[in-house]
């Protein structure tokens, strides 16, 4: 006989079914921080609310932290807003807000406590099973608040932090993205268009389309900050189709500095005439040398690469060996950097400014790293560095001062 679901179970299933792909918590085994970067109206609040409500109802007696820019934001947006936690349940089944204790309580005694990012010290002492931090980039002292919050995530088997925010190019966000255990998801406003007012997106695109404000507020991208080499307007202009035939295709590799955990930048670029075409971003993370070398060789096979360009400043002999072991189908060129990543990227940024580089697909993670080149802080630009090597090899050749090339 089929089990009859309770009203609460039906509501949990209904809310879960309403989630879009970008609103589901990632399933990565080493997940410690779920970072959801989204445009305005992309459904960030709904994603956080469903996650908190589902966890609180399934695990009796747990304690959760809700952190917003101010206490007003926690209550009016995260708890009682149109996409807040209380809005997910029907009348009579909603968790109750206890204003005096600044907490939301479920019938099973699970509780979510409200904290303001304006008062970092309020997070000293309490302990939690999980935490939801909203609009991280609007906090005045993001790193201090985050540090105190994390010291309190010490209950349960696997305490998890969820961070939902519209991004801004601040060092605190770039460092958070670079941390081990952080899984970053991105969500453009357009993904949630079905739940927005008709004409909302069209109007904003008419007014702000192609600007850095649109990239940040509508697409959820971390745009360039002070000192950035690449401009958002050049990247937007770089969209285009792949030619039927290409004269030459290169797979460029920025190997990780350690045996596991760091990303291995893998970018495929082709050339036709005076233009370069970015075909794929095959970057991988957390693989052994054999694992990322296999991904490089597979990319070379998939795109019929004429050569593989690999940076050899760190572990050059190892890079050469693992590519050979994986039967690399194309000749391998080892390149050695004598200048900084930003200095090497300057001539490539000029090619983008001249309209001579085309992105044949959307590459949000790659473009985000490009927009960070030259700025303070942030993760290692593995994807962007691989792109620079590939475009330089195809478009600048020996005229580019810096890399020395040695054939294997």
From TrEMBL:
Q: Which domain of life is it from?
A: Bacteria
Any one Pfam family here would be: Terminase_6C
Q: Where is the Terminase large subunit gp17-like C-terminal domain?
A: 252-392
Q: Which InterPro entries match?
A: P-loop_NTPase (IPR027417), Terminase_6C (IPR035421)
Specify whether GTP-binding is a keyword of the entry: no
| Alphabetical UniProt keywords | Viral release from host cell
Name used for this protein in its record: DNA-packaging protein
Provenance organism? Brevundimonas intermedia
């Amino acid at each position: 006989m089929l089990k009859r679901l309770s009203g609460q179970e039906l509501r949990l299933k209904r809310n879960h079914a309403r989630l879009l792909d970008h609103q589901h918590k990632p399933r990565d085994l080493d997940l410690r921080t779920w970072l959801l970067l989204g445009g305005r109206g992309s459904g960030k609040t709904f994603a956080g609310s469903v996650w908190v409500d589902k966890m609180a109802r399934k695990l009796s007696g747990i304690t959760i932290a809700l952190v917003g820019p101010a206490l007003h934001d926690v209550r009016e947006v995260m708890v009682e807003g149109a996409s807040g936690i209380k809005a997910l349940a029907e009348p009579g089944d909603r968790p109750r807000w206890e204003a005096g204790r600044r907490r939301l309580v479920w019938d099973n005694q699970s509780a979510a406590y409200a904290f303001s990012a304006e008062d970092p010290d309020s997070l000293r002492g309490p302990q939690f099973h999980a935490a939801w931090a909203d609009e991280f980039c609007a906090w005045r002292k993001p790193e201090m608040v985050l540090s105190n919050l994390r010291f309190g995530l010490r209950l349960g088997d696997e305490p998890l932090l969820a961070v939902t925010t519209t991004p801004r190019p601040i060092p605190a966000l770039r460092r958070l993205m670079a941390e081990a255990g952080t899984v970053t998801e991105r969500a453009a406003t357009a993904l949630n268009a079905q739940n927005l007012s008709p004409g909302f997106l069209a109007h904003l695109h008419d007014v702000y389309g192609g600007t850095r404000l649109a990239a940040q507020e509508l697409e959820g991208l971390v745009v360039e900050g002070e000192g950035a080499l690449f401009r958002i307007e050049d990247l937007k202009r770089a969209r285009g189709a792949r030619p039927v035939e290409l004269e030459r295709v290169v797979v460029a590799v920025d190997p990780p500095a350690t045996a596991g955990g760091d990303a291995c930048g893998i970018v495929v670029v082709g050339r036709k005439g005076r233009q370069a075409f970015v075909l794929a971003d095959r970057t991988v993370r957390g693989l052994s040398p054999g694992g990322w070398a296999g991904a490089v060789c597979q990319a070379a096979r998939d795109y019929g690469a004429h050569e593989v360009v690999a940076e050899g400043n760190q572990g050059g002999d190892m890079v050469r060996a693992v590519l050979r072991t994986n039967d690399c189908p194309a000749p391998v060129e080892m390149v050695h950097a004598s200048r900084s990543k930003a200095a090497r990227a300057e001539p490539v940024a000029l090619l983008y400014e001249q309209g001579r580089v085309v992105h044949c697909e959307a590459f949000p993670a790659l473009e985000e790293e490009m927009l960070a080149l030259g700025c303070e802080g942030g993760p290692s630009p593995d994807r962007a560095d691989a792109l620079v090597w590939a475009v330089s090899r195809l478009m600048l050749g020996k005229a580019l001062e810096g890399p020395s090339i040695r054939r294997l």
